[in-house]
Task: inverse folding
């Protein structure tokens, strides 16, 4: 259980009481205790692949079967996941304070105003105070340059039969193939075993397809979801990959919120490595508007902002967001 220094907790809660305009930035770490893997560090591996290397248009172009299996697994996990206490605590704060907005880099749900299906929304986070920066696993669009087909809220699991999670007994023999990142995988499982992260395991008869010892089927184009409109392009998840633009309307709304008043009082940076732009840049923008910053992270090296380390008046709460966030927002 993380230890929160009483003096830090007291100064934070006193300051929070007087805050009007609050901005939160969420990353994968907030959902770690809901059983969803992170991107970097412990847990940032899908089989032997670095998750970030699969999140690019180039990776999809080169091997759509591999990338679809990664996303099909992520859709499956997201559908099974439950919001944790951090999602609920942020939702509560949002309901009390209409000047509080949350920017989420997570893609675990649809995020449309008329649905309530990402983890934050399932915790009853008001949708108009939640902005999804990197899209959703459940939005689907055509990859053809000439086709504008997209559909929202596709919760079919699997999206096509060939992407079903295999149900037979996994081969227990460790692969001698690529061992990159084994150490990271080990430390993730160590954290799981220590109860630092709780993991919603797949059903007992499902193969854990995040386990690199289980072989990855080679899928052809014919096995993958095809656009029903143009019958030519492959479908892809509507997430924002590296090199792609974030949704312009979302960027404009956030920009407008930041500049709508002379001051931002507080920025909460929760469970993100703050390495990905433009999301990482919001901390400096909020600081420039006078915000004090509170970072909640397992790893003290993941402090955001261009200046190394925390500014005077910032807080760092180390530990599981699922424990710390409800504690400090109480
Ligand atoms: C816990 C915990 C627990 C664990 N409790 N904590 C400026 C400078 C340099 C580069 C760029 C720049 N501007 C743009 C770029 C390029 C690029 C970029 O940022 N590159 C950097 C990596 C160098 N950015 C882009 O390409 C962006 N696009 C863009 O800028 O487009 C411009 C453009 C304009 C107009 C036309 C065309 C283009 C797009 C970025 C998209 C990122 N996409 C991904 C994949 C989404 C789909 C998917 O989910 O598969 O988003 S990458 C991945 O990283 C994902 C995440 O949302 C994102 C952030 O990761 P996050 O959430 O921080 O996770 P982790 O794993 O990194 O960290 C987890 C943290 O939690 C760690 O700190 C742990 O310690 C902690 N933790 N357990 C608390 N229990």
Result:
């Amino acid at each position: 259980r993380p230890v929160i220094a009483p003096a830090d907790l007291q100064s934070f809660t006193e300051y929070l009481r007087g805050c009007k305009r609050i901005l939160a930035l969420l990353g994968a770490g907030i959902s770690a205790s809901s059983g969803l893997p992170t991107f970097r560090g412990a847990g940032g591996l899908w089989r032997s692949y670095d998750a970030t290397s699969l999140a690019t248009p180039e990776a999809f172009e080169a091997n759509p079967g591999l990338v679809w299996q990664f996303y099909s697994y992520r859709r499956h996990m997201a559908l099974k996941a439950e919001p944790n206490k951090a999602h609920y605590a942020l939702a509560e704060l949002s309901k009390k304070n209409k000047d509080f907005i949350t920017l989420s880099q997570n893609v675990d749900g649809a995020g449309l105003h008329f649905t309530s299906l990402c983890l934050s929304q399932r915790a009853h986070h008001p949708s108009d105070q939640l902005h999804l920066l990197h899209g959703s696993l459940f939005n689907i669009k055509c990859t053809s340059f000439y086709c504008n087909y997209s559909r929202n809220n596709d919760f079919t699991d699997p999206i096509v039969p060939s992407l079903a999670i295999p149900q037979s007994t996994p081969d227990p023999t460790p692969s001698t193939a690529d061992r990159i990142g084994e150490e990271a995988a080990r430390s993730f499982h160590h954290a799981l075993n220590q109860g630092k992260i709780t993991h919603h395991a797949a059903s007992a008869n499902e193969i854990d397809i995040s386990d690199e010892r289980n072989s990855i089927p080679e899928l052809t184009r014919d096995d993958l979801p095809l656009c029903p409109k143009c019958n030519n392009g492959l479908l892809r998840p509507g997430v924002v990959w590296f090199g792609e633009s974030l949704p312009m309307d979302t960027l404009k709304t956030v920009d407008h919120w930041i500049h709508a008043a002379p001051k931002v009082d507080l920025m909460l940076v929760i469970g993100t490595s703050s390495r990905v732009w433009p999301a990482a840049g919001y901390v400096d923008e909020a600081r420039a508007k006078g915000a004090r910053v509170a970072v909640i992270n397992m790893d003290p090296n993941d402090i955001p902002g261009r200046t190394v380390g925390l500014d005077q008046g910032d807080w760092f709460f180390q530990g599981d967001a699922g424990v710390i966030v409800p504690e400090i927002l109480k």
Q: What stands out?
A: The chain has one domain: 6-328. The chain has a mean pLDDT of 85. The two ends are 17 Å apart (CA to CA).
